Amino acid sequence: MALSCCLFSSQIDRHRPRLQSIASCNKRTSSICLTLGVASKNGSGRLFGGAVAGKEEKQLIGWNFVGGSRTITIPNLGRDSCSRKGSAVYASWVPSAHQIASSAFTWGTVAVLPFYTFMLVAPQAEFTKKIAASSVPYVVLGVLYAYLLCLSWTPETIHLMFASKYWLPELPGIAKMFSSEMTLASAWIHLLAIDLFAARQIYFDGLQNDVETRHSVSLCLLSCPIGILAHVITKAVTTSR
């Protein structure tokens, strides 16, 4: 018995360097497994038999005979963060419906003011007659109105405009339709075009019949029907003298 124990102990001592070398190799292999990872195109892959998966994180799994298996979780911030940043930049360049409606309302109002100004300040000037006879503002306002109308159009627009059984407009339907900012902006552009056209007609009629029109033109900017009424009264009073 003592002899066999001595022989077994001598065999272990003889093979001890080899066992230490194997253990050292396994430790290095485990270290490499823990530091290297392979990811596939869809965000998952394999690493020495261990799965690397997940859209939000990656798992690096290493395994050996000595230390067992180990897992390290690493957040996946590359592709997802870049796509989120790209979508945020794209969204910032696309105007919202509120921005489109607000810009159309403001620039449409500013565009018609020079025509009213010249008809009020210098009604007899040749330059005023030329710009008042121009069709450019009506073309621009017409295109802008058509654009806003397309943006504000919905499948139920026709039903809201002709809600009664006789295909006539009703106040509740019109009120619901104009609850949209885009619809309000298109209606404002519509009013600007009609008011400017009426003011131009009053202006030229005053020049032809030698009738004062500045007060009527001003009223057309604020309330077109009252401006037309004022011109009719002024013309009737002037020609009756």
UniProtKB/TrEMBL annotation:
Pfam families: ABA4-like. The chain crosses the membrane at residues 104-123, 135-154, 174-198, 219-238. Keywords: Membrane, Transmembrane, Transmembrane helix. The keyword Cytoplasm does not apply. It comes from the Eukaryota. PANTHER family: PROTEIN ABA DEFICIENT 4, CHLOROPLASTIC. This is Protein ABA DEFICIENT 4, chloroplastic.
